[in-house]
Amino acid sequence: MTTDSSHASPLAPEWLALPEDLNALQSPMWAAGVEKNDAGEVAIDGISVKELKEQFGTPLFVMSESDFRSRARAFKDAFDAAFGDICGGVDVYYAGKSFLCTAVASWVAEEGLRLDTCSGGELAVAARAGIEGRNLGLHGNNKSDAEINRALDMHVGRIVVDSLDELERVAKIASSRGETAKVMLRLTPGVHAHTHEFIATAHEDQKFGLSMAEDSTEEAGLSAAEEAVAAATSYSSIELLGLHCHIGSQIFEPDGFAVAGEKLLRFLSAMQSKYSIVLPELDLGGGYGIAYTPVDTPRPPAEIAQAMAAVVRSTCAELGIAAPRISIEPGRAIVGSTTFTLYEVGTLKTVRVDAPGGDAEQENVTYPRRYVSVDGGMSDNARPVLYDADYSAILASRSSTAAPQLSRVVGKHCESGDIVVRDVYLPADVAAGDLLAVPGTGAYCWALSSNYNYLARPGVVAVRDGAARLIVRGETEEDLLNRDMGVANV
Ligand SMILES: *Cc1c(COP(=O)(O)O)cnc(C)c1O
Question: pTM to 2 decimals?
Answer without folding.
Answer: 0.96
